[in-house]
Amino acid sequence: MRIRDLLLILLLCASFFARAQNVAPAAGEPIVINEDTLFKVYAGQGMFNPKERAEVITHRINSLLNRMDFNPDSLTVKNDTSISVIFYKSQMILALNDKDAAFTELNRPQLAASYLSTLKKKLGNVFENNSIKQIIINILEAVAVIVLLICFIWAVNRGFRWLKLKIIKAWESRLDKLAAKGAPVGYANRIFPLINNLLRIARFVIIILLVYLALPVLFFIFPASKPMATLLLGYVLTPLKSIALAFLHYIPNMLTIAVIYIVTHYIIKLVKFIAKEIEQGAFSVNGFYPEWAMPTYNIIKVLLYAFMFVVVFPYLPGSDSKIFQGVTVFLGVLFSFGSSSAISNMVSGIVLTYMRPFKLGDRVKIGEITGDVIEKNLLVTRIRTIKNEDITIPNASVLGGHTVNYTSTAKTLGLILNTTITIGYDAPWEQIQNLMVSAARSTEGILPEPSPFVLQTALNDFNVSYQVNAYTDQPNKMAVIYSRLHQNIQDKFNEAGVEIMSPHYSALRDGNHIQIPNDYVDKDYKTPGFKVKPE
């Protein structure tokens, strides 16, 4: 009993070692026909190792495909006690033994039946694709695709031609309407060629797209060109797939950016609401003027958006790219160098806003320019003179020079207008002051209170300088008020018979006519003669 068990163990060991010697690499040697792997050979046979055996089997199968009378149904299998052979008619294709079955979960007859089924199916497809009938069918299908492509291109051309005619008719109708209204129509003739070129480019792009999509269909019809069809489709589908995947992966960052933007947007809306309320006087803040409200809101808005961009920047696609960062730095440097004067004006505009030297509608004098402020922004201040000249002054120039505001205290303290005349020493100063005050009081636009007053500003060689000062609350009518004041001064002095010695006037009083208009001279007045006293 023990000897029998020992012999059984020895037989099992011998069988194991025999199997171990015939085991091929786990990968096996493939049988490839027309770039299609039918099955693999794992064991050698006779004098052939697995690789050589695979080459022989591949050669036999290819020889079958070269036969014009090949019929997959003529493939048969014959199973013996130790071997299974697949024949094509009387020609042996391959032989399977128990070693081949040992690498699968099937026994030898089952493995042979499986290989037979695979050969019939695969070789039948290959032969069918290479048959004359199939080639003719493929050619007809290709012709159909080409004809269909030509029809699509024809339809695209007709469609764009129809669209072009519709646009021309609509454009001519519009030109007629504009011409009927007397509006200039020259710009329309310049825009139409642009629209025509855009239509031409769109038509060309659509045709190129149709041709590109038709090529994979043509290549897919013929088995030999199927890889090219796959390649062409890959040029389109691969980028689209990459874009779709990138979009899906970017959704979390997109949601983060959306949340940051929404929060910033509503914070800015809240700041704007508060600024509007302060500007309209709904409530006030000590030391904060209502005209500061909207400029402050604009500054806060810019700062909040800048902060939002800084927070959002890491979530932007490609923000970690060196190229993206380099372009960003380049644009920043370019902006800094190219906008130095603009930034200077913007800073000056902000400073002027909080300095409050003037506001819209004020009559001001900036440098040598006098007029009303009609616009002020971060970059420039615009002045309209009394001659309706609109003058634009950079804010940096406004901040760097001196500004006179005639309106700021006109409603409270009153703006003092003044003008100077010179009168000879022979006229009593009390009379001169009374006449000047009377002229000021009778001038429209001069306030009765505070009362006008006169200053004697200089004792000149031939006359005395008298300066009348009068209050007004209408600084925007300064030129008109000055003109009326000068008229009234002339009338009052002429009525009183007082000569105005402006400009400097010297005369021999004994021989000359008095310097007063004839309407104001007495009828009995006679020009005195020259008095000469001999020594």
TrEMBL record:
| Residues annotated as domain Mechanosensitive ion channel transmembrane helices 2/3 | 298-339
Top-level taxon in the UniProt lineage: Bacteria
Q: Name one GO cellular component term.
A: plasma membrane
Q: How does it sit in the membrane?
A: Multi-pass membrane protein
User: Which GO MF term does the entry hold, naming one?
Assistant: mechanosensitive monoatomic ion channel activity
- Entry keyword annotation includes Cell inner membrane: no
Q: Which residues cross the membrane?
A: 135-156, 201-222, 242-268, 299-317, 329-355
Q: Name one Pfam family in it.
A: MS_channel_2nd
**What are the Mechanosensitive ion channel MscS C-terminal domain coordinates in residue numbering?**
418-500
Q: Which residues form a coiled coil?
A: none
Provide the Mechanosensitive ion channel MscS domain boundaries: 342-407
Q: What is its main location?
A: membrane
Tell me which positions the record assigns to the signal sequence: 1-20
Q: Where in or outside the cell is it found?
A: Cell membrane
Q: Which UniProt keywords apply?
A: Cell membrane, Membrane, Signal, Transmembrane, Transmembrane helix
Family listed: Belongs to the MscS (TC 1.A.23) family.
Q: What is this protein called?
A: Mechanosensitive ion channel family protein
Taxonomy, top ranks, is: Bacteria, Pseudomonadati, Bacteroidota, Sphingobacteriia, Sphingobacteriales
